[in-house]
C-alpha cells in the first residue's frame, strides 16, 4: 500500500504555486465531475420519460380485448364470460379489471361540420364511496365530481384535454354525438342515432391522437344510445403489470378451449380479435376467440373527411 500512496501523492501533488493539486489533476477532477453529473441527469430524464410513457400507455385503454365477429358483433350474456374468466385463480390475482365495453366510430357535431371520433363506453364504478379513481378510465385532470357520479343515469360525457382545447369545449358544454344505429333499410340506409351530452370532465393520456379523438360514456347510457339492450361489443381486460401479459393471454386461450367455454359459446359466438391491423394477436381454434395483445398500441380514427378506418399508433 505504501507504493500506491507514494505514486498517488507524486502525481496528484502540484508545484507550490498550484497548492495541493496540480493543474492537470484539477482539470481531471472537474471533467470527471461534469461527466458524472451529465450521466446522472441523462439517466434521470430517461427514466422519468420511460415511466411517463408507460403510465400513459398503460392507463389509456385496455390491455386485452375480446370481440365477436358474428352478425352485428354483439356479445350477449357477457357477464357469464367474465365470471368464467375470474374463476381462474391466476387471472383473478393479476387482473385489475375485466368489464363489458362498447367501442365504436361516431361523429361529433362542431358548428356546421361533423368530426370523426371514437366512442368508448365503460362501466363507471368508483373504487370506494369517496374515491373517483376509476380503473376503466384514463387519468381525469379536471371534472365535475357530482356529475361524474351520475354518469350511469345521465347524458354526461368525458372528453380528452386536447379535444377540449382544439374545439373550445369547456366544462358544462353541451355537444351532439351521432352514432350508427345498426339498422339498415333500402329506403333510408343506415339508421343514425343522435343524442346530446354534457361535458363533465377531461382526461389526459399524453398522446395527442388519443386525447383529441376519444370520448368516454358510461356503459348503461351507451347501451341505450347504440340500442344494444344490455349487451356489449367487447370484453376488455386490464392487468397489473406488463410482465403478466404473456402468461395472461396464454391462460385465456386455455380457458377458451375449455369445454365449459365451448358450451357457453354455442349460444354466443365469440371469434374476432379487436383490430386485425394490430400486431401481437393470438388465436386458438378458428371457432374460438382470438385474444389481442395491445399493451403498447392504441387505435384512432384517421384524419380524413370520411372518418373511416383505423390505424395503429406508431405505424
Characterize the structure shown.
The protein has 315 residues and is an alpha+beta fold. The chain has one domain (61-309). Helix content is 34%, strand content 29%. The strands form 2 sheets. It has a 6-stranded mixed beta barrel. Strands 13-14 form a two-stranded antiparallel ribbon. Strand 6 and strand 7 (189-203) form a beta hairpin. The radius of gyration is 27 Å and the shape is flat.
Distance between the termini: 61 Å
- Strand residue percentage: 25-35%
How many helices in DSSP terms?
10
Give the strand order, joined by hyphens, for the main sheet.
Answer: 2-3-8-5-7-6
Mean pLDDT across the residues is: 73
Total domain units: 1
The helicity comes to 25-40%
Q: H/E order of the elements?
A: HHEHHEEEHEHEEHEHEHHEEEEE
Sequence stretches where pLDDT stays below 50 over 5 or more residues = 269-315
Count the beta strands.
14
Shape: flat
Category by helix and strand content: alpha+beta
**Largest sheet composition:** 6 strands, mixed, barrel
Mind telling me the C-alpha Rg?
27 Å
Amino acid at each position: 500500500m505504501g507504493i500506491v500512496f507514494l505514486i498517488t501523492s507524486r502525481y496528484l501533488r502540484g508545484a507550490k504555486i498550484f497548492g495541493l493539486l496540480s493543474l492537470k489533476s484539477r482539470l481531471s477532477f472537474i471533467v470527471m465531475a461534469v461527466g458524472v453529473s451529465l450521466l446522472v441527469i441523462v439517466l434521470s430524464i430517461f427514466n422519468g420519460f420511460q415511466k411517463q410513457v408507460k403510465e400513459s400507455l398503460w392507463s389509456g385503454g385496455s390491455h386485452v380485448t375480446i370481440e365477436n365477429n358474428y352478425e352485428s358483433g354483439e356479445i350477449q350474456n357477457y357477464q357469464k364470460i367474465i365470471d368464467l374468466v375470474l374463476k381462474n385463480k391466476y387471472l383473478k390475482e393479476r387482473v385489475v379489471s375485466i368489464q363489458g365495453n362498447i367501442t365504436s366510430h361516431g361523429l361529433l357535431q362542431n358548428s356546421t361540420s361533423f368530426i370523426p371520433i371514437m366512442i368508448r363506453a365503460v362501466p363507471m364504478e368508483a373504487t370506494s364511496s369517496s374515491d373517483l379513481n376509476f380503473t376503466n378510465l384514463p387519468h381525469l385532470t379536471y371534472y365535475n365530481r357530482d356529475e361524474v357520479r351520475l354518469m350511469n343515469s345521465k347524458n354526461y360525457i368525458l372528453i380528452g384535454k386536447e379535444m377540449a382545447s382544439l374545439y373550445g369545449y369547456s366544462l358544462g358544454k353541451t355537444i351532439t354525438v351521432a352514432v350508427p344505429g345498426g339498422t339498415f333499410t333500402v329506403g333510408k340506409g343506415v339508421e343514425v342515432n343522435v343524442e346530446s351530452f354534457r361535458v363533465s370532465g377531461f382526461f389526459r393520456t399524453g398522446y395527442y391522437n388519443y386525447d383529441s379523438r376519444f370520448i368516454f360514456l358510461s356503459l348503461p347510457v351507451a347501451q341505450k344510445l347504440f340500442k344494444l339492450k344490455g349487451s356489449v361489443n367487447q370484453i376488455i381486460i386490464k392487468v397489473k403489470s406488463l410482465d403478466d401479459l404473456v402468461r395472461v393471454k396464454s391462460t385465456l386461450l386455455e380457458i377458451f378451449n375449455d369445454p365449459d367455454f365451448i358450451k357457453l359459446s354455442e349460444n354466443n359466438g365469440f371469434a374476432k380479435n379487436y383490430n386485425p391491423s394490430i400486431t401481437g394477436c393470438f388465436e386458438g381454434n378458428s371457432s374460438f376467440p382470438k385474444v389481442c395483445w395491445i399493451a403498447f398500441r392504441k387505435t384512432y380514427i384517421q384524419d380524413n373527411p370520411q372518418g373511416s378506418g383505423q390505424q395503429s399508433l406508431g405505424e
